[in-house]
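BUG: 3D viewer hangs when loading the predicted structure for this chain

Environment: internal workstation, default settings.
Expected: structure renders.
Actual: progress bar stalls at 90%.

Input used:
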Amino acid sequence: MLHLIDYNSLALAYIGDAIYEVYIRKMLIESGITKVNNLQHEAINYVSAINQAKFLEKLTDNNFLKEDELVVMNRARNHKGTRHPKNTDILTYKHATAFEAIFGYLYLKNDLNRIEQIINFIVKE
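Structure tokens produced before the viewer hung:
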């Protein structure tokens, strides 16, 4: 049987992207923002590849990630893909993918508490 940590990193990032965005949207709505245009504008501060790469750097610089999360991060970041969106470079995209993979891993592991800890760390930074 395949262990979560061994799942395809891009599959983890695929679901992690959706999970992360739901948590960010929930946080923004709970902050009192009610207009959709304002919600979308604020969400970009959290969900763009550039900002996700910055958040990953803050998490690693502060030794916030656990050992298994670092394994997932490294596998996703080092994935041998060369495709990336036009609005970002390959390195930023790989870091953003690694960031999203962590959320996918934690979601599939059903560790919602840890997801919230990471979200809270990011928001406070």
